[in-house]
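Dear H.,

Thanks for agreeing to be a second pair of eyes. The structure we're designing against is below in token form, covering all 334 positions.
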């Protein structure tokens, strides 16, 4: 199991996590269970390959079967379990899938969000944190990315997240629901099954003794953000929602490492941590069409409001990540 980032002590809560069988949701559920919360998770189908199951966190949660779009499910889950804290991470997260089937992605990412918010409003949930993404800003060249930049998404996935972001904040301004939004950068770590993403794809290849392929020339830089730091950011925002003077209600906050690293640097670290003697296979020239050359966020707003800051270095994060996949590769990567 990955070593969790330090979590601020707080009284136990009745927590609902949507998307708990996903990458970040699994890590968040683990952290909540470890701090003594009563955790309720939604399960849509049999998910033995998810980190939530592999790490046996599922056994310590209350499982509600169904998805966020099921008629009345969210309202019942919140009401029947006396939920006081909600983390909403359920989404269709694959950019290519959203491009192929935008209607289904809008249904989950947008309608799923307002159904969740209505359940929280109906039952007067004390704190709700909604996961957005830096992709909601679109292909901005303004760096570092700060929260007062407009949401200028142009592709289906990015648009769905921008819509959910706006909707969530709107429920505070219109109805007084204590909600905050967290816009994370490129999250990586143990438990990500999407090998089309750079880090899990490179780890799977390197552990198998194959040179990880880089589609660009390796120069694009991203703000790589370890999942344990992302979890700590969600928990910090939830805690801050209790204090009206903290100024987090109805607000969105960037979360990232604040330090861009090149694709080539990251893959080299993966190869070194894997210890299988492979090197990156750089096949591209320049930056692939549709990708930005450099991306990094400013997280000063979140730090000022909550005291949160990232604590996992890239080198440590890659070591943790490779270790997780070394233990779980056969079942976790599909």
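And this is the sequence the design step returned. I haven't edited it by hand at all.
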């Amino acid at each position: 199991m990955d070593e969790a980032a330090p979590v601020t002590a707080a009284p136990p809560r009745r927590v609902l996590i949507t998307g708990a069988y996903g990458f970040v949701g699994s890590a968040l559920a683990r952290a909540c269970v470890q701090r003594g919360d009563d955790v309720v998770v939604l399960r849509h189908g049999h998910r033995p390959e998810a980190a939530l199951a592999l790490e046996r966190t599922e056994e310590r949660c209350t499982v509600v079967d169904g998805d966020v779009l099921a008629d009345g499910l969210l309202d019942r889950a919140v009401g029947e379990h006396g939920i006081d804290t909600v983390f909403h991470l359920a989404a269709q997260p694959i950019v290519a899938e959203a491009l192929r089937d935008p209607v289904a992605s809008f249904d989950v990412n947008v309608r799923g969000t307002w159904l969740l918010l209505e359940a929280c409003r109906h039952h007067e949930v004390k704190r709700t944190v909604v996961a957005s993404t830096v992709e909601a800003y679109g292909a901005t060249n303004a760096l570092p990315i700060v929260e007062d930049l407009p949401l200028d998404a142009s592709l289906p996935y990015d648009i769905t997240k921008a819509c959910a972001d706006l909707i969530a904040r709107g429920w505070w301004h219109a109805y007084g629901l204590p909600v905050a939004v967290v816009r994370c950068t490129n999250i990586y770590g143990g438990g990500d099954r999407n090998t089309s993403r750079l880090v899990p794809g490179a780890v799977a290849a390197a552990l198998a003794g194959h040179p990880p392929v880089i589609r660009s020339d390796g120069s694009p830089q991203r703000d790589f953000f370890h999942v344990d730091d992302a979890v700590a950011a969600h928990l910090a925002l939830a805690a801050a929602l209790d204090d009206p003077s903290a100024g987090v209600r109805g607000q969105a906050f960037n979360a990232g490492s604040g330090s861009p690293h090149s694709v080539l640097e990251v893959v080299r670290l993966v190869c070194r941590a894997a210890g299988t003697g492979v090197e990156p296979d750089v096949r591209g020239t320049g930056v692939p069409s549709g990708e930005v050359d450099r991306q990094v966020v400013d997280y000063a707003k979140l730090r000022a409001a909550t005291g949160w800051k990232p604590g996992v270095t890239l080198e440590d994060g890659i070591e943790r990540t490779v270790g997780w996949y070394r233990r779980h590769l056969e079942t976790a990567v599909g």
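Two observations from my side: Confidence is low (pLDDT under 50) at residues 1-8. The CA atoms of residues 139 and 290 lie 9 Å apart.

Warmly,
E.
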